[in-house]
Design goal:
This protein is mainly beta and 239 residues long. The chain has helices at residues 2-19, 21-30, 50-53, and strands spanning 36-46, 61-72, 79-94, 97-99, 110-112, 118-139, 149-172, 177-186, 194-204, 207-214, 228-238. Strand 7 and strand 8 form a beta hairpin. The chain is elongated.
Length: 239
């Protein structure tokens, strides 16, 4: 039922947007103001126990993409409200740790593979959310946003569309390859299906630094510790 309601909400948003397509396109061409956001981030779990944090490896990262409408305040064009639709993703990499997301226990098992006969050389947990971002924006030069200081504070409301682990290259205890198969396991059993994130952006022209912090836990209360996703990275904006 939640998925159906979310899809219907998304369709309603798109219908409203399409009904104003001509006016919106004209406004976007005449008044460019970050209608498209592409974000690349460095990701981490805040509040992760040492047993999990110590197993993180490599560059855990995220990629987000949003299409947004921007509505300047008539009383002060330096400020505006923006809202839209997009997708947010996160990829957390681990070394010698197996997240058993397809398990049937009430809590998510984080299996330590240190010292085991075999483990995977590359291992990650990936998640994807469809999101509705809202921003209160400031623009130092409304007449020339590509050469202006930009700042924004906001919230994102998301619904999970995928969660999976990906394991590559099974090795023995000495690091020798047993097989080079890739194993993907999909399950949302232990994840909170909805999330709320606080966001902030600051920069100049088409580039801004951004931060996004989950106000809601990644996992269900009885499934794992109270861990929240933190993303810090770079936003490219245009049109």
């Amino acid at each position: 039922m939640k998925k159906i309601l979310f899809v219907l909400f998304g369709m309603a948003f798109l219908n409203i947007a399409s009904a104003q397509t001509n006016n919106t396109l004209t406004s976007m061409l005449l008044h460019p103001s970050d209608h498209f956001l592409i974000q690349l981030s460095s990701d981490r779990w805040v509040g992760a126990p040492d047993s999990i944090e110590s197993k993180r490896s490599g560059w855990s990262r995220g990629f987000n993409f949003y299409i947004m409408l921007d509505k300047p305040f008539k009383s002060n064009p330096h400020f505006s409200i923006a809202y839209g639709l997009g997708v947010g993703t996160s990829h957390i990499f681990f070394n010698k740790l197996d997240l058993q997301i397809t398990g049937q226990t009430t809590d998510l098992k984080f299996k330590n593979m240190e010292g085991k006969d075999s483990s995977y050389d590359r291992y990650k947990l990936a998640s994807s959310f469809i999101e509705i971002p809202l921003e209160l924006r400031y623009l130092s030069k409304p007449e020339n946003p590509n050469k202006a200081i930009k700042a924004a504070l906001g919230l994102k409301f998301g619904y999970i569309i995928d969660a999976h682990t990906k394991a590559e290259t099974l090795q023995d205890a000495n690091g020798n390859t047993i097989n080079d198969y890739t194993v993907k396991l999909h399950s949302q059993r232990y994840f909170n299906t909805t999330r709320v994130c606080a966001t902030a952006r600051l920069g100049y022209g088409n580039f801004t630094l951004f931060g996004a912090y989950n106000l809601t836990p990644i996992f269900k209360d009885d499934a794992a510790a109270d861990m929240k996703l933190l993303q810090i990275g770079l936003t490219f904006s245009g049109l």
